[in-house]
Amino acid sequence: MGQQAFDSAAFLAHCSSHPGVYRMLDAEGKLLYVGKARNLKKRLSSYFRTTGLSPKTAALVARIVQIETTITANETEALLLEQTLIKEWRPPYNILLRDDKSYPYVFLSDGVFPRLGIHRGAKQQKGRYFGPYPSAGAIRESLGLLQKAFLVRQCEDSYFKNRTRPCLQYQIKRCKGPCVGLVDPAEYAEDVRHSIMFLEGRSNALAEELSAAMEQAAARLDFERAAELRDQIALLRRVQDQQSMEGGSGDVDVLAAVVKPGGACVHLISVRGGRVLGSKNFFPQVGIEEEVGEVLAAFLGQYYLASPERDLPGEIIVNAMHEDFSALASVLGEQHGRELHIRHRVRATRARWQQLALANAEQALSARLVHRQHLADRFEALAEALDLDAPPQRMECFDISHSSGEATVASCVVFGPEGALKGEYRRYNIEGVTAGDDYAAMQQALTRRFGKLREGEGKLPDILLVDGGKGQLAIAQEVLQELAVPDLILLGVAKGVTRKPGLETLYLNDAAHEFTLPADSPALHLIQQIRDEAHRFAITGHRARRGKARRTSSLEEVVGVGPKRRRELLKYFGGLQELSRASIDEIAKAPGISKKLAESIYAALHSE
């Protein structure tokens, strides 16, 4: 039974002409698209005209079985509601900014000897936060400069508190050794103050202050100190030259969007106080609208409006205008308590900024599309090598990682024609198998992965890659048969006798169908790429799990010994090593420890 056609005429006959938001849904009630309109009836009528629709819009309209509308008091309210719904539901036909990471800040901790570092997420630690920056790379550049110029520590507090002698950073003159008392707190506080001035964008005032201090040091014949200050000023000026936009000033974000068949790119350059904090490329998912203005309007709404913590400049320069920019500027300005100007026609320095952002966006999108085409060619080659009717749309690869059986982790990576689908990667902590038994580990991982298909969860891959020889392949066959998984292509990848790349032995579906591919085969390169990514992802998970296990004290497993009692015990004995050497009677002498609890503690410490 086919899908019932949407009666657009009947719907439009009763549609309001007020401002509002509309939501288009398919036969299963899933949200396809969210839009806003100054006039709902006029905007929605444009979707159902007989000619002039783009292919993507026609595809959307063909799936519509229901449209819901919400009338708002004005266009601004419609804009806010639209952004809320897009952020919550992420409809497939909307332009979506795939930037769900938290934004990085430079963090300066509290204390006598504060540390500088990169921070993401909730601001729960006490201290000062500078930013947000467009990328972590931009922060690392700033921290690298500060470490060279002012030698403020960047090590973790746990590392700092346990030093008995200065580390390598002190030896290479990147830290003054506050961990072992090699710097006076007042001198360190002055270095911190200078770092703050730089992070606040007051580089000129900082350079003038350092120049005055250098002259004073020279006047009192303290030439060593004068030379240190001279080097700081030179480094600061060099960075100012690198980071300044010629003739630029103020707080500005420069945005340029480029749209081509196959994708879109928005390049952002952040300028604060005339200083470039960094730049970043964004590749939004392009929906039914493909005009540059539409992409920019969607980007502005999701980048600034849907993220109130985002730093808002006083001016945004774009390479195309859109009717929504006026409302966006008004809402954003009100939200952040400052006036915002969105400009397109600019001259002189700002025009050069605009051209620079546009050139970067064009280059980035071209490189991305070339990479995507290169990957598509590899998928075509694999389809040809395996004699498939069409290139696979989803490939999964499993790998196992452990150290002598410790902290075994299985990885599952997913690839499609556009590349790695990292949001669908999975790791499986393997439990209850004999240490080092890779076959049992693979069996457990595959059973957990494909067992969910029976429950209606997860997608079925076209090709399942298993890193290993005939044994791993047999395990995969056994699991798939036991779970009655529908037919899929099973591909085993075994390293050759020399274990060199390019000499892999491949098994198609079973051990009887053994074959190899030429070392220069694009199909083999794709298999190697996915296999290597599964290996990397497994090792990363294994190392994290092993590190966590080794950091976990045996005391954490003892019932009745909570965090406070653990601290008191370790303090009483002077550390875990001394506690491990103690007898049951000696442990029972510690404050708050009964004889029974002492026995449990002793057993936990000597269980291996």
Structure overview:
The longest helix has 38 residues, at 348-385. The strands form four sheets. Strands 12, 13, 14, 15, 16, 17, 18 and 19 form an eight-stranded mixed beta sheet that branches. The chain has a five-stranded mixed beta sheet with strand order 9-8-7-10-11, with helices on both faces. 44% of the residues lie in helices and 18% in strands. The mean pLDDT is 84. It has 20 helices and 19 strands. It has helices at residues 8-13, 40-45, 55-63, 75-89, 136-150, 157-161, 168-171, 185-199, 203-219, 223-243, 292-305, 325-336, 348-385, 438-451, 470-482, 522-551, 563-573, 576-581, 584-588, 595-605, and strands spanning 20-25, 31-37, 66-71, 105-109, 116-119, 127-130, 252-260, 263-272, 275-282, 315-317, 341-343, 395-403, 406-416, 419-420, 426-429, 463-467, 489-494, 505-508, 514-515. The protein is an alpha+beta fold and 608 residues long.
- Approximately how much helix is present in the residues? 40-55%
Class per helix and strand makeup: alpha+beta
Distance between the termini: 65 Å
Number of helices: 20
Q: Mean pLDDT across all residues, rounded?
A: 84
Number of strands: 19
Radius of gyration: 31 Å
Beta-strand residue percentage: 15-25%
Are there runs of 5+ residues with pLDDT below 50, and where?
none
Principal-axes shape call: globular
- Main β sheet profile: 8 strands, mixed
